[in-house]
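Hi Y.,

Following your request, here is the sequence exactly as I used it, all 271 residues.
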Amino acid sequence: MEQLPLRSSSIPIPKSISPWRLRPAARFAEALRLHCGNLHPNSLGIKELRDLGIMFAANFGCPYKMQGTGLIGGTSAPSAHFVLVLLHFRRQRTVSGPWTERVSLQKRKENAMAIAKNTICLWYDKEAEAAARFYAETFPDSSVDAVFRAPTDFPSGKAGDVLTVTFTVLGIPCLGLNGGPAFKHSEAFSFQVATDDQRETDHYWNAIVGNGGQESECGWCKDKWGISWQITPRVLSEALAVGGEEAKRAFTAMMTMRKIDVAAIEAARRG
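Below is the corresponding structure, written out as tokens. Let me know if you'd prefer a different format.
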């Protein structure tokens, strides 16, 4: 990365950074360089900084919150300094101060092109962020990608409230919208999660139901926010795909179940 002039900062590199933290910091610094190209971190806009902070928090378990805007810089290794400052604020969680530069038009175009062509939008009352974080903690290939706050008051909230959250569930891009209590979820929409065995089936089922969710029939359950999930062992899907008497036996067995019993489905397939 090109070295840029030093800039004053109200947040110096903390001397208390433990050496063991430098290795993950170096890894994140490389990710930052790949994300920013030749841009100095001080040229990133507020949204870009927040996105990077969320990425950092997701990868290294660092609680991260940004209030207002912030100036981060003042070193010949700006990306590493950015990481160290975030590490320093592992407990304080707050970065503040004025920003004087914005990302280039080309960078904004690149960011716009990175938005998925098709995204599932899920309507929540006011807990989209909590739901997204639960999904990220529960399922693989899942993450909270960005949190956006309302620029003005809106029907179900005020300026500064969390309005939307972009997140990924099992590789699927989603948008959580805090739209208020007007609309409710139903079984008309559900996520279907294919599981490999009883252990994985139990893990997801218990995580959802045990976090304020609700059991239903035939492998279906609801999370505490009303989203429906089908926790479906592959052995059941394979049996139904075979057709004939094997499919009938597996289907009949499934109709008696709440959480799917893999052993019972396998026994039904054998007849």
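The first helix runs from residue 22 to 36.

Thanks again,
Q.
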